[in-house]
Amino acid sequence: MESVNQLGSVGTFQVLKLPLGFIRILEWLFAIFAFATCGGYSGQLRVSVDCQLVKASSNLSIGIDFAYPFRLHQVSFEAPLCEAKRKERLFLIGDYSSSAEFFVTIAVFAFLYALMACVVYIFFQNKYREINRGPFIDFIVTVVFSFMWLVSSSAWAKALSDIKVATDPDEVQELMSACKVMTNKCGSVHGPRWSSLNTSVVFGFLNFVLWAGNIWFVFKETSWHKGGPARYGGAPPAKQAGTFAQQQSYNQGSFDQPGGYSAQGDLEQASEYSPVGGPTSYSNQM
Protein backbone atom coordinates (compact mmCIF):
# COMPACT_ATOMS: atom_id res chain seq x y z
CA MET A 1 0.00 0.00 0.00
CA GLU A 2 2.87 2.39 0.76
CA SER A 3 4.35 1.89 -2.70
CA VAL A 4 0.94 2.57 -4.28
CA ASN A 5 0.56 5.75 -2.22
CA GLN A 6 4.04 6.87 -3.24
CA LEU A 7 3.21 6.34 -6.91
CA GLY A 8 -0.01 8.27 -6.46
CA SER A 9 1.81 11.14 -4.80
CA VAL A 10 4.53 11.29 -7.45
CA GLY A 11 2.36 10.74 -10.53
CA THR A 12 -0.52 12.84 -11.74
CA PHE A 13 -3.07 10.27 -12.88
CA GLN A 14 -5.63 13.00 -13.54
CA VAL A 15 -4.13 13.39 -17.01
CA LEU A 16 -5.59 10.00 -17.95
CA LYS A 17 -9.06 11.53 -17.61
CA LEU A 18 -8.21 14.12 -20.24
CA PRO A 19 -8.46 13.32 -23.97
CA LEU A 20 -4.67 13.49 -24.35
CA GLY A 21 -4.03 10.70 -21.83
CA PHE A 22 -7.23 8.71 -22.35
CA ILE A 23 -6.66 8.34 -26.10
CA ARG A 24 -3.08 7.21 -25.45
CA ILE A 25 -4.46 4.38 -23.28
CA LEU A 26 -6.80 3.36 -26.11
CA GLU A 27 -3.92 3.47 -28.58
CA TRP A 28 -1.90 1.22 -26.31
CA LEU A 29 -4.72 -1.35 -26.02
CA PHE A 30 -5.67 -1.30 -29.70
CA ALA A 31 -2.04 -1.76 -30.74
CA ILE A 32 -1.90 -4.93 -28.64
CA PHE A 33 -5.02 -6.28 -30.33
CA ALA A 34 -3.65 -5.40 -33.77
CA PHE A 35 -0.33 -7.25 -33.57
CA ALA A 36 -1.72 -10.11 -31.46
CA THR A 37 -4.50 -11.00 -33.91
CA CYS A 38 -2.13 -10.85 -36.89
CA GLY A 39 1.18 -12.11 -35.50
CA GLY A 40 -0.37 -15.02 -33.62
CA TYR A 41 -2.40 -16.42 -36.51
CA SER A 42 -2.17 -19.99 -37.80
CA GLY A 43 -4.65 -21.53 -40.23
CA GLN A 44 -5.33 -24.78 -41.99
CA LEU A 45 -7.22 -25.96 -45.04
CA ARG A 46 -8.09 -29.48 -46.12
CA VAL A 47 -8.79 -30.91 -49.55
CA SER A 48 -9.57 -34.42 -50.77
CA VAL A 49 -8.47 -36.46 -53.80
CA ASP A 50 -10.54 -39.50 -54.74
CA CYS A 51 -8.78 -41.66 -57.33
CA GLN A 52 -11.32 -43.63 -59.37
CA LEU A 53 -8.89 -46.10 -60.94
CA VAL A 54 -6.63 -46.74 -57.96
CA LYS A 55 -8.65 -46.38 -54.81
CA ALA A 56 -5.66 -47.16 -52.62
CA SER A 57 -3.97 -43.94 -53.76
CA SER A 58 -6.86 -41.75 -52.67
CA ASN A 59 -6.38 -39.26 -49.87
CA LEU A 60 -9.59 -37.72 -48.60
CA SER A 61 -7.97 -35.43 -46.03
CA ILE A 62 -4.91 -33.50 -47.19
CA GLY A 63 -4.06 -30.95 -44.51
CA ILE A 64 -2.18 -27.75 -45.41
CA ASP A 65 -1.01 -25.59 -42.51
CA PHE A 66 0.20 -21.99 -42.83
CA ALA A 67 0.84 -19.17 -40.38
CA TYR A 68 2.34 -15.72 -39.91
CA PRO A 69 4.36 -14.23 -41.67
CA PHE A 70 2.54 -15.90 -44.61
CA ARG A 71 5.44 -17.03 -46.78
CA LEU A 72 3.11 -19.32 -48.66
CA HIS A 73 5.71 -20.29 -51.26
CA GLN A 74 7.51 -22.16 -48.46
CA VAL A 75 4.39 -24.10 -47.37
CA SER A 76 4.51 -27.58 -48.88
CA PHE A 77 2.13 -30.55 -48.93
CA GLU A 78 1.92 -33.93 -50.63
CA ALA A 79 -0.87 -34.97 -53.00
CA PRO A 80 -1.47 -38.36 -54.62
CA LEU A 81 -0.92 -38.80 -58.35
CA CYS A 82 -3.44 -41.65 -58.55
CA GLU A 83 -0.80 -43.70 -60.39
CA ALA A 84 0.63 -46.69 -58.55
CA LYS A 85 0.56 -44.98 -55.15
CA ARG A 86 2.92 -42.21 -56.15
CA LYS A 87 2.81 -38.71 -54.62
CA GLU A 88 3.93 -35.26 -55.65
CA ARG A 89 5.26 -32.45 -53.48
CA LEU A 90 3.56 -29.11 -54.06
CA PHE A 91 3.89 -25.57 -52.69
CA LEU A 92 1.37 -22.80 -52.24
CA ILE A 93 1.78 -19.62 -54.28
CA GLY A 94 2.71 -16.18 -52.93
CA ASP A 95 4.85 -14.38 -50.36
CA TYR A 96 2.98 -11.83 -48.24
CA SER A 97 5.48 -11.54 -45.40
CA SER A 98 6.47 -7.93 -46.19
CA SER A 99 2.97 -6.51 -45.66
CA ALA A 100 2.26 -8.67 -42.61
CA GLU A 101 5.59 -7.92 -40.91
CA PHE A 102 5.29 -4.22 -41.71
CA PHE A 103 1.85 -4.12 -40.09
CA VAL A 104 3.02 -5.96 -36.97
CA THR A 105 6.15 -3.81 -36.68
CA ILE A 106 4.12 -0.60 -36.74
CA ALA A 107 1.76 -2.06 -34.14
CA VAL A 108 4.62 -3.03 -31.81
CA PHE A 109 6.34 0.37 -32.05
CA ALA A 110 3.02 2.16 -31.56
CA PHE A 111 2.41 0.04 -28.47
CA LEU A 112 5.82 0.95 -27.03
CA TYR A 113 5.47 4.67 -27.79
CA ALA A 114 1.95 4.89 -26.35
CA LEU A 115 3.19 3.21 -23.17
CA MET A 116 6.16 5.56 -22.90
CA ALA A 117 3.94 8.60 -23.55
CA CYS A 118 1.57 7.57 -20.75
CA VAL A 119 4.50 7.26 -18.33
CA VAL A 120 5.73 10.75 -19.32
CA TYR A 121 2.24 12.24 -18.95
CA ILE A 122 1.81 10.76 -15.48
CA PHE A 123 5.22 11.09 -13.84
CA PHE A 124 6.94 13.84 -15.85
CA GLN A 125 4.03 16.10 -16.76
CA ASN A 126 5.69 19.29 -15.44
CA LYS A 127 8.86 18.73 -17.45
CA TYR A 128 6.76 17.78 -20.47
CA ARG A 129 4.92 21.10 -20.36
CA GLU A 130 7.94 23.25 -19.43
CA ILE A 131 10.16 22.01 -22.24
CA ASN A 132 8.85 23.06 -25.64
CA ARG A 133 10.60 20.18 -27.35
CA GLY A 134 8.48 17.61 -25.50
CA PRO A 135 5.08 18.54 -27.01
CA PHE A 136 6.74 19.28 -30.35
CA ILE A 137 8.31 15.79 -30.56
CA ASP A 138 5.07 14.24 -29.36
CA PHE A 139 3.16 16.05 -32.11
CA ILE A 140 5.57 14.98 -34.86
CA VAL A 141 5.58 11.33 -33.74
CA THR A 142 1.78 11.28 -33.56
CA VAL A 143 1.50 12.58 -37.13
CA VAL A 144 4.04 10.01 -38.37
CA PHE A 145 2.28 7.11 -36.64
CA SER A 146 -1.07 8.23 -38.05
CA PHE A 147 0.33 8.06 -41.57
CA MET A 148 2.09 4.75 -40.95
CA TRP A 149 -1.06 3.17 -39.54
CA LEU A 150 -2.97 4.16 -42.68
CA VAL A 151 -0.28 2.80 -45.01
CA SER A 152 0.34 -0.45 -43.11
CA SER A 153 -3.37 -1.19 -42.62
CA SER A 154 -4.11 -0.61 -46.30
CA ALA A 155 -1.18 -2.81 -47.37
CA TRP A 156 -2.17 -5.53 -44.93
CA ALA A 157 -5.81 -5.45 -46.07
CA LYS A 158 -4.68 -5.95 -49.68
CA ALA A 159 -2.30 -8.75 -48.67
CA LEU A 160 -5.03 -10.48 -46.67
CA SER A 161 -7.29 -10.42 -49.71
CA ASP A 162 -4.55 -12.11 -51.77
CA ILE A 163 -3.90 -14.67 -49.03
CA LYS A 164 -7.56 -15.67 -49.03
CA VAL A 165 -7.38 -16.28 -52.76
CA ALA A 166 -4.10 -18.23 -52.55
CA THR A 167 -5.41 -20.51 -49.78
CA ASP A 168 -8.84 -21.07 -51.28
CA PRO A 169 -9.34 -24.86 -51.50
CA ASP A 170 -10.62 -24.53 -55.06
CA GLU A 171 -7.42 -22.70 -56.06
CA VAL A 172 -5.25 -25.26 -54.29
CA GLN A 173 -6.94 -28.12 -56.16
CA GLU A 174 -5.82 -26.63 -59.46
CA LEU A 175 -2.20 -27.15 -58.38
CA MET A 176 -2.68 -30.95 -58.14
CA SER A 177 -2.03 -33.08 -61.17
CA ALA A 178 -4.60 -35.68 -60.08
CA CYS A 179 -7.34 -33.04 -60.06
CA LYS A 180 -6.68 -32.27 -63.73
CA VAL A 181 -7.78 -35.78 -64.70
CA MET A 182 -11.49 -35.92 -65.38
CA THR A 183 -11.92 -39.40 -63.89
CA ASN A 184 -10.67 -38.31 -60.44
CA LYS A 185 -12.77 -36.36 -57.97
CA CYS A 186 -11.30 -33.52 -55.89
CA GLY A 187 -13.17 -31.63 -53.24
CA SER A 188 -12.83 -29.20 -50.33
CA VAL A 189 -13.10 -30.54 -46.78
CA HIS A 190 -12.89 -27.12 -45.08
CA GLY A 191 -11.18 -23.81 -45.58
CA PRO A 192 -9.25 -21.53 -43.21
CA ARG A 193 -10.95 -19.32 -40.63
CA TRP A 194 -10.36 -15.64 -41.19
CA SER A 195 -12.03 -14.06 -38.17
CA SER A 196 -8.73 -13.28 -36.43
CA LEU A 197 -7.11 -11.69 -39.48
CA ASN A 198 -10.24 -9.72 -40.32
CA THR A 199 -10.18 -8.37 -36.77
CA SER A 200 -6.55 -7.31 -37.18
CA VAL A 201 -7.45 -5.21 -40.22
CA VAL A 202 -10.31 -3.57 -38.31
CA PHE A 203 -8.00 -2.74 -35.40
CA GLY A 204 -5.46 -1.36 -37.85
CA PHE A 205 -7.86 1.22 -39.22
CA LEU A 206 -9.21 1.95 -35.73
CA ASN A 207 -5.66 2.74 -34.66
CA PHE A 208 -5.36 5.12 -37.59
CA VAL A 209 -8.54 6.90 -36.45
CA LEU A 210 -7.28 7.15 -32.87
CA TRP A 211 -3.84 8.48 -33.79
CA ALA A 212 -5.24 10.91 -36.35
CA GLY A 213 -7.83 12.18 -33.86
CA ASN A 214 -5.19 12.63 -31.19
CA ILE A 215 -3.19 15.01 -33.39
CA TRP A 216 -5.37 17.93 -32.33
CA PHE A 217 -5.02 17.28 -28.59
CA VAL A 218 -1.24 16.94 -28.88
CA PHE A 219 -1.09 20.09 -31.03
CA LYS A 220 -2.82 22.04 -28.26
CA GLU A 221 0.18 21.34 -26.00
CA THR A 222 2.70 22.84 -28.42
CA SER A 223 3.87 26.44 -28.52
CA TRP A 224 2.35 26.79 -31.99
CA HIS A 225 -1.17 26.59 -30.56
CA LYS A 226 -0.41 28.58 -27.42
CA GLY A 227 1.16 31.37 -29.47
CA GLY A 228 -1.74 31.47 -31.92
CA PRO A 229 -3.97 34.03 -30.12
CA ALA A 230 -1.04 36.43 -29.77
CA ARG A 231 -0.29 36.27 -33.48
CA TYR A 232 -3.78 36.29 -34.89
CA GLY A 233 -5.82 38.00 -32.21
CA GLY A 234 -3.86 41.28 -32.15
CA ALA A 235 -0.88 42.63 -30.26
CA PRO A 236 0.59 40.88 -27.19
CA PRO A 237 -0.77 41.91 -23.76
CA ALA A 238 2.35 43.90 -22.87
CA LYS A 239 2.21 45.83 -26.11
CA GLN A 240 -1.50 46.48 -25.68
CA ALA A 241 -0.89 47.78 -22.15
CA GLY A 242 1.81 50.13 -23.44
CA THR A 243 -0.47 51.45 -26.17
CA PHE A 244 -3.25 52.04 -23.65
CA ALA A 245 -0.85 53.97 -21.38
CA GLN A 246 0.28 56.16 -24.27
CA GLN A 247 -3.30 56.94 -25.19
CA GLN A 248 -4.12 57.79 -21.58
CA SER A 249 -1.15 60.14 -21.24
CA TYR A 250 -2.07 61.80 -24.53
CA ASN A 251 -5.63 62.43 -23.34
CA GLN A 252 -4.41 63.90 -20.06
CA GLY A 253 -2.02 66.18 -21.93
CA SER A 254 -4.75 67.47 -24.20
CA PHE A 255 -6.93 68.35 -21.20
CA ASP A 256 -4.10 70.15 -19.41
CA GLN A 257 -3.08 72.37 -22.35
CA PRO A 258 -3.97 76.17 -22.04
CA GLY A 259 -5.92 76.12 -25.23
CA GLY A 260 -7.64 72.91 -24.38
CA TYR A 261 -11.25 72.37 -23.73
CA SER A 262 -12.52 73.33 -20.23
CA ALA A 263 -16.08 72.47 -19.41
CA GLN A 264 -16.18 74.61 -16.24
CA GLY A 265 -14.83 77.76 -17.95
CA ASP A 266 -17.32 77.51 -20.78
CA LEU A 267 -20.18 77.14 -18.37
CA GLU A 268 -19.14 80.25 -16.41
CA GLN A 269 -18.76 82.25 -19.60
CA ALA A 270 -22.20 81.23 -20.77
CA SER A 271 -23.77 82.36 -17.46
CA GLU A 272 -22.49 85.97 -17.87
CA TYR A 273 -24.62 86.56 -20.92
CA SER A 274 -28.38 86.50 -21.18
CA PRO A 275 -30.20 84.83 -24.03
CA VAL A 276 -30.37 86.84 -27.26
CA GLY A 277 -33.56 88.85 -27.59
CA GLY A 278 -34.63 88.25 -23.99
CA PRO A 279 -35.60 90.96 -21.42
CA THR A 280 -32.64 92.47 -19.50
CA SER A 281 -34.61 93.50 -16.45
CA TYR A 282 -38.13 93.54 -15.03
CA SER A 283 -38.32 97.39 -15.02
CA ASN A 284 -37.59 97.67 -18.71
CA GLN A 285 -40.27 95.13 -19.40
CA MET A 286 -42.82 97.26 -17.57
Summary of the model, kept short:
This protein is mainly alpha-helical.
Sheet of most strands: 3 strands, antiparallel
Quickly count the helices.
12
Q: How do the helices and strands follow one another from N- to C-terminus?
A: HHEEEEHHHHEHHHHHH
Which stretches of 5+ consecutive residues score pLDDT under 50? 6-10, 228-286
**Share of helix, binned:** 55-70%
Q: Structural class, please? A: mainly alpha
Please indicate the percent range of residues in DSSP E strands (runs of 2 or more).
5-15%
Q: What Rg is obtained from the alpha carbons, in whole angstroms?
A: 40 Å
3D structure, described in words:
The protein is mainly alpha-helical. The model is unreliable at about 5-10 and about 230-285 (pLDDT under 50). Strands 2-1-5 form a three-stranded antiparallel beta sheet. It has helices at about 1-10, 20-40, 95-125, 125-130, 135-165, 170-175, 195-220, 225, 230, 235-255, 265-270, 280-285; strands at about 40-50, 60-65, 75-80, 85-90, 185-190. Belongs to the synaptophysin/synaptobrevin family.
